[in-house]
Amino acid sequence: MTAKPTVLFICKHNAGRSQLGAALLEIAAPDRYTATSAGIAPAGEVNPSIAATVAELGLDISDRIPRKVTPELLDQADVVVLMKPGLDLPATPRGKVLQWSFPDPDSWSPDDVRPMRDAVAARIQGELLRP
Question: Per-residue pLDDT for 1 more than 60?
């Protein structure tokens, strides 16, 4: 049995976009990928509106702790998804790099987040799950 490919989602604070991407991939394809996330300058907690909209899909991420992206994480990832283009990474990723552009949901309500959640889910379906 071969190991599942690791997909590392990265955003600035690892509180919103990257947590959302990792959670959505975890929900959509837990048997196909290992989903993880990190940030350039991690926040203290996951954005509550992001956590609320992911909880609506049956996954509680409210207790996850944002973490800093490291050269080791970049080396372990088969696919790196930058949720904001042009992020200054601490090393060159070993795997394939995808650059997506989603706004920072820092002060958004769950109602504001849902359209982005659905857009990220569609991007995951189109670029990671379709052969």
Answer: no
**How much is the pLDDT for 74?**
98
Nearest to 91 by CA among 110, 68, 109: 68
The pTM (predicted TM-score) of the whole model is 0.96
Strand-pair category, 79-82 with 6-11: parallel
Cα–Cα distance measured from residue 104 to residue 84, given in angstroms and rounded to the nearest whole number: 9
Q: Which residues pair with 35 in a beta bridge?
A: 7
Strand order in the sheet with 34-39: 34-39, 6-11, 79-82, 96-99
DSSP 53-77: HHHTTT---TT----B--HHHHHH-
